[in-house]
Amino acid sequence: MKVVSGLFVFSAIAFCSCKIPDYIKVCKFNDPQLGDCISSSVNMIRGKLKDGIKELNVPPLEPLFIDRLSFGNKDYASHLATNLTNIKITGASEFNIIKVVPTLTKKGHTFRIEAIIPKLHIEGDYEINTKILSLELKGNGPFTADLNQYHFECMLKGKKVEKEGANHLEFAKMQCNVVIDKSSIYLHNLFGGNPILEKATNDAISENSESLYQDIRPGISDAIRQRFTDIANSVTLAFTYEELFPET
């Protein structure tokens, strides 16, 4: 999901010596409320992130696509065993920044980010092979899922690197801890689309949705973290380090 991409964009341009667009609030290094200033700046540009910022080569925040997630194990009595493909995630543009704690030093720059997304909606295709309440489930079709109150805390670390004779800020893969309030998933076209069997089976799946989410969370988290890091670097490597973080 690209929920903190706004911070990445801001980290790349808020201290830039070039002309700053009107929708960017510039924050100074010596601002005693630097974290609050950054949060405010991200909120100012959040509305633009949904459709992307062409002048900064920032792609649209929505939808976020993930090609494939696989999970499950041989213990089909307690775990779903399935592949999810063609995954599309929406809702990330509704993110709210709770707190940003920046640490800026000569050796590197670290941003600790806490944020929440009210609801993520997920669509895609599934292939399933599992057993629920003595029912053998094998098949495929579309699925929908919702993750409510997606709360995350992330750390984004950057360091100065030299590329083609110029200094740039490059980020390592961000690290995140994620907690959600409730999750749900619905598998369509089970039992040939039989509405009674389909609903009964999905009700059983919903009762174990927390266990299901624990299975798929590593894959989702890894895909999102990698995408966010790629977005951050695509922007910051377009500027020199001195442009992004002038000493005066």
UniProtKB/TrEMBL annotation:
Protein's UniProt name: Uncharacterized protein
Taxonomic path: Eukaryota, Metazoa, Ecdysozoa, Arthropoda, Hexapoda
UniProt record, GO biological process: circadian rhythm
Signal sequence residues: 1-18
Family: Belongs to the TO family.
Listed GO CC annotations: extracellular space
Superkingdom of origin: Eukaryota
Cell wall biogenesis/degradation in keyword set: no
InterPro entries the record matches: Haemolymph_juvenile_hormone-bd, To_sf
Keywords: Biological rhythms, Signal
Organism: Aquatica leii
